[in-house]
Amino acid sequence: MNDLDLTLMRLHGKGYNCSQILLLLALEMTGRENPDLVRAVGGLGNGLGGCGELCGVLTSAACLISYYAGKGADDETAHDRLPLMITELVEWFGTQACAGCAGMRCADILGEGSAGRPDPTRCGGLIASAWSKSLELLQESGIDPTLPPGEHHDW
Hints:
This protein is mostly helical. It has helices spanning 3-13, 18-30, 35-41, 45-48, 56-69, 82-97, 106-110, 120-140. It has eight helices and no strands. It has one domain (3-140). It is globular and about 45 Å long. The longest helix is centred in the last third of the chain and has 21 residues, at 120-140. Helix content is 59%, strand content 0%.
C-alpha cells in the first residue's frame, strides 16, 4: 500500500465521497483549505448524489482540472487547453479506467445491484487513477499542480 492509498483510506474514513476526495487531494497538495469547494463537489459523488448516474470520479476530475486551469476571477482567463484536457480525461475514463464496464455511470461501473453504495476497492482504484491522469494532463499543459491555482496563470 502506498501513500496515496493511505490518504484515500484516511479521507474515506472521515466520510468524504469520491468527488470530495479528489478535490481534497489537490487542496492538501497546495496547502489550502476550502470547505465551500469540498461541500459543493459533494453533490457529484456516488453518481450525482447517490443516483447511480455519471461517475463522481469523472465529474470531480473535470472539476479538479478546472480548479487549476479554469477562470476563477474577473482578471483571469481559462487555460486555452482546458477543453482539450477535459476531453482527453473523458476519453481516457471511458476507454481505460472503465474498460470492461457497461458505461461511465456509477451503476454501469458498480452494477445495478450496488444500490448507490460505492465499492471501496473499485472506487478507490478509480480515484487513484483519475488523480494520476489529471496530474498528467495538467503537467502536459505546463501547469504545476503543486502550486495553488492563480499563482501560475501566465497563459
